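Same chain as my last thread, 220 residues:
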Amino acid sequence: AQLPFTVRIVDSDDAYRALLAQLNAATQIAFDTETTDLNMLQAEIVGVSLAVNDTEGWYVPCRPQAGQNAGYYIDPASPKFEPIARAMGRVEAQLVAHNAKFDLGVLRQAGVSFDKPVFDTMLAQFLCDPGGRGLGLKSMAFAHFGWQMTEISELIGKGKNQLSMADVPLEQIAPYAAADAVATFKLAGVLAPQLKKLNLERLFYEVEVPLIPVLLDMEP
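reply #2:
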């Protein structure tokens, strides 16, 4: 199904400048990483997706990818990524991620870290509905918005013939990744008021969210 937002790929300097302008004006930035591995210490970042509203999702390729315009990429360890990280790190911009510990962990491995709290939609959902079954981003997007998002197995397959995300062509990985960022952005908009309504704001903002960097520091 066609998801209701525009996918924008950072595949030129013009697109890069357009993304930076949006990030620097944003009050909320959702982000997600696509990686080669689910172990954050071994994972290499294939791309980063970002959303500052629910109408468009950005995809930044972080290494060469198959497909059109695949030669343009921004390595998170390179100086060219620094303005993106700086924009994300602004005090006025609230960062949002789903299972933030993983994304913060892989970015940190690449030398990018943020000295501020991150609103974690997975933690927020868990507090709002502790008995609920689905804490995965795809199942939450379906439960809250009826979105049928692409499963990762549709891109990389399963079992011994499974590909790496690094092998997925740009025109397939970009919409998949952008959807993750937009869904995360939209979920924060639903879950923040729920936390308030259920009187869980203090537990979330003062206990759970500050624990994320602590747990990250405890990783080997």
